[in-house]
Amino acid sequence: MQIVEYLLAMAPYMAAALPFVLLFRLVARRRMRRRGLCESPLREVGVVLFLLFLVGLISQTVLPQIVIGADGTLELVRQRPGCHINLIPFRQFADVMRAADPMYAAINIAGNIVMFMPIGFCVPLLWREFPLWRTALVGAGFSLGVEVLQYPQGRSSDIDDLILNTLGVMAGYGLWRLFVYLFPKAAAHFRVRTA
């Protein structure tokens, strides 16, 4: 249920970003054509959806949360004071596993993994067939950026989130490898080719 709430919270940001993403892709496609490259409509849809996903992910992890107040005005959600930086690996895992609500532990751990799986899947599918270590490095860099940008907003920054996010990227990479193995012709439609 909480995953659906996150998706619904991402939707307005993704909708607002859609015209800008489409404009960006229009410019990118023209540049590609000038260089003698082309792409299938399927790849274009994949790139647009992935960019919108990144906007949604940033909206839930980096941007300040905004809610509609009781009087109909927009209010900025103030994060609780005392947020911290955890640089000790696996400390949050232990804290979450001791939580009274086992569902919270499952959502926290699975959520941090699942929300970064599209990066591990889409980067090698849509751009370059990086090896696992390089794809993991791209995802870890994105996750590190999120963690650094969260702290000034009063949110906690945690190395365990970085670890889980990177594991999610690696799991997404594994799914990409499986997809390429099972559906090589379909995977080829996502590649840029010469005109």
Overview of the structural elements:
This protein has 195 residues and is mostly helical. It is built from eight helices and six strands. The strands form three sheets. It has a two-stranded antiparallel sheet with strand order 1-6. A two-stranded antiparallel ribbon has the order 2-3. Strands 4-5 form a two-stranded parallel ribbon. A hairpin with a 5-residue loop joins strand 2 and strand 3. The termini are far apart. The mean pLDDT is 86.
Short description:
With 195 residues, the chain is mostly helical. Helices cover 68% and strands 7% of the residues.
Q: Measure the end-to-end span.
A: 46 Å
Quickly count the helices: 8
The biggest beta sheet, please?
Answer: 2 strands, antiparallel
Mean pLDDT: 86
Beta strands, count: 6
Widest sheet, order of strands: 1-6
Quick one: overall form? globular
Structural class: mainly alpha
Reading the helices and strands in chain order gives: HEHEEEHHHHEHHE
Q: What low-confidence regions span 5 or more consecutive residues with pLDDT below 50?
A: none
Assembly state here? single chain
β-sheet strand percentage? 5-15%
The residue fraction in helices comes out at 55-70%
| Gyration radius over CA | 19 Å
